[in-house]
UniProtKB/TrEMBL annotation:
Taxonomic path: Bacteria, Pseudomonadati, Pseudomonadota, Alphaproteobacteria, Hyphomicrobiales
Protein name as catalogued: ABC transporter ATP-binding protein
Domain ABC transporter residue range list: 17-265
Key words of the record: ATP-binding, Nucleotide-binding, Transport
GO molecular function: ATP binding; ATP hydrolysis activity
Family annotation (Gene3D superfamilies): P-loop containing nucleotide triphosphate hydrolases
CDD domains: ABC_Mj1267_LivG_branched
GO CC annotation: plasma membrane
Keyword ATP-binding in record: yes
InterPro entries in UniProt: AAA+_ATPase, ABC_AA/LPS_Transport, ABC_transporter-like_ATP-bd, BCA_ABC_TP_C, P-loop_NTPase
The keyword Transport is annotated on this UniProt entry: yes
Organism: Vineibacter terrae
């Protein structure tokens, strides 16, 4: 057995994240219905599907923003289904949002510092105000953030207010803020949405670097099929709340139900 095979086998034997029989209704609308999937440790996993398929609802349940009506979500074998978002973040699941959610009046560095709140004993405000242990802690957090800023090649912009940055750069800062949490699993909701081709390629490169160099497992919602098929180890397909496919990018592209529901439509092969 090759090293790569044994690694793949180990990952399959103990997925880092499992979603089992999860459903969610909003009034009469079934957003997610009986969805199960496993995310191998160290993988990049994409969740695709047409608009309204339930992708963001699923991510919102994994990150604790919605509570499933049924089913179990587990991180490293421990159920997290009923935990609050802050507790889930503290367990090591970070996320970015479909719409940029940065503090536009704060600098790049300060936005990343806020991303570390789950690690701060002293709290952001007291760290900013006091010397002594809180000051020492703040310096350590700042160093971690500076390192992430360099990793994402944002060093020239560290003191700039994020509101003044281009859309693509703000998306990169959001990625940095999620990384500042030092997550085991990173949930990215359309990180390339609204980007031009160059910005998309940059972001795809950063996502790959995060995965390979920092060993972070990535769960990605993305409409750009070129990017999805290029960078994903596994792809899961939702349609009207149900899982209709899953496997390697090659397997998914050959699944008739997927081709019919998504890839074969006029949206197939490009963006929705
Ligand atoms: N908070 C909510 N209240 C009511 N309905 C909701 C809520 N969140 C999601 N829905 C509904 O659940 C369904 C799935 O929506 P969701 O946003 O999860 O889909 P999606 O696959 O992420 O779509 P998109 O690609 O457009 O972002 C939709 O019919 C949506 O209107």
């Amino acid at each position: 057995m090759s090293a790569a095979e044994s690694l793949a086998d180990r990952a399959a034997a103990s997925p880092i994240l499992t979603v089992q029989g999860v459903s969610k209704k909003f009034g009469g609308v079934t957003a997610v219905q009986d969805v199960s999937l496993e995310v191998p440790r160290g993988a990049i996993v994409s969740v695709i599907g047409p608009n309204g398929a339930g992708k963001t609802s699923l991510l919102n349940m994994v990150s604790g923003f919605y509570r499933p009506d049924t089913g179990v979500i587990a991180l490293e074998g421990d159920a997290i289904t009923t935990l609050r978002p802050s507790q889930i973040a503290a367990r090591g699941i970070a996320r970015t949002f479909q719409n940029i959610a940065l503090f536009s009046g704060l600098t790049v560095l300060d936005n990343l510092m806020l991303g570390r709140h789950v690690h701060m004993r002293a709290g952001v405000l007291s760290s900013a105000l006091y010397w002594g242990p809180a000051r020492k802690e703040e310096i350590a957090h700042r160093e971690r953030c500076e390192e992430i800023i360099e990793f994402l090649k944002l060093q020239d912009l560290r003191k700039q207010q994020t509101g003044a940055l281009s859309y693509g750069l703000r998306k990169r800062v959001e990625l940095g803020r999620a990384l500042a949490l030092e997550p085991k699993v990173l949930l990215l909701d359309e990180p390339m949405g609204g980007m031009n081709q160059d910005e998309k390629e940059d972001m795809a490169r950063h996502v790959l670097d995060v995965n390979i160099e920092r060993g972070v497992t990535v769960v990605l919602i993305e409409h750009d099929m070129g990017v999805v098929m290029d960078i994903s180890d596994r792809v899961f397909v939702l349609d009207r709340g149900r899982r209709i496919g899953g496997g390697t990018p090659e397997e998914v592209q050959r699944t008739p139900a997927v081709i019919q529901a998504y890839l074969g439509t006029s949206k197939g092969g490009g963006q929705t």
